[in-house]
Amino acid sequence: MQGVRTGTVLSPGTFLQSNSIVRFNSDGTIDTTFQTAGTTAWPTGGLNYIEDLTIQPDDKIIAVGGFGGFRNSSTSPTLIRYGIARLNLDGSVDTSFQINPADFGVPAGASQLRAQFRQATIDSAGRILVAGYFEWGPAYPVTGTIHVLARLNPDGSRDTTFAPVIPPAVTEFENVVVEPSGNIMVIGSLGQSASSSWMKRLLPNGSPDPSFTLEPSLGPIHGRPLQVDAAGRYLLSTRNSPLTYQDRLVRVLANGSLDPAFNATCQYVNGVVGTGPGFFGTFTTAPSGKIYSGSYFDRVNGVITMKLVAFEGDYVPNSTGTLQFAAAGFSDRKQTEISASPSPAPTAHPARLPQHCR
Predict the structure, then answer these.
(1) What's this model's pTM, rounded to 2 decimal places?
(2) Is residue 259 one of the residues assigned to a domain?
């Protein structure tokens, strides 16, 4: 994710919601020059949330998720936006950017049209790559669905020169990120019942790059969000056994093989239904190389930690410190450093909340 986690302050000092955006100053205070009333819901199906944010070089913000429109204020009309919108520096909707569903094959007159985009990423030419889908008709069963992996021009129109080569077995697209080289990494699904996922590096024209082959032993994988670190590696969540889901966090190298230096599993021992598998819902690698993850767990590699964990990365010395939870309504507590490698575990260190945290 290139930006801050979604949320809105309904009035100064109240609470955050996932269907809008708040911008913080560098000291953690809310930037009151940025104002938006956030998204409106799909016409049917109930989705109304922001999944991810991407900050353009000019500081405009691309928001993606499952929503039907955006509003500049609580009294302004809804501007229809199919799961993707761009905001100006003050939070207002950028009306110079809008996608046209017809560019993606949506039939004219499709009723109750809606879209969900899961990630957007920008290349060096200012074009925007997106992964998601359109659907129309009743909430269930839907009349039609079109899955999208596309490149957009800066105004939101489709760049038809990008024609990705996709295997027929790939049923939908979860993530997309542009690497520093200009190549494009994509994660797709092979169907809800599949035992594995599809992850592939594409060249800028959409043809496959043979230098990447995903480790075949991995089950279904997820990037929340998909990010490439300074060494060309990717964090992925997967399952630790056939009966679990996203309770293992791994890292793959630039060629797609597993990084033997990083492997983490989580549990929720004191859950409402007793002990069970945990869930790595979101994760990010900071510029320092440290790795942060948060979601649903109270044990990571057997060490107690509540819904947030920080791993030492590869670029900084081990250090000690305290995770501060008071601002989120938790008590401050000393956290034990989690080791994600076979080497001896270091001690605790400071951490901050992940940029993308549900």
Answers:
(1) 0.83
(2) yes
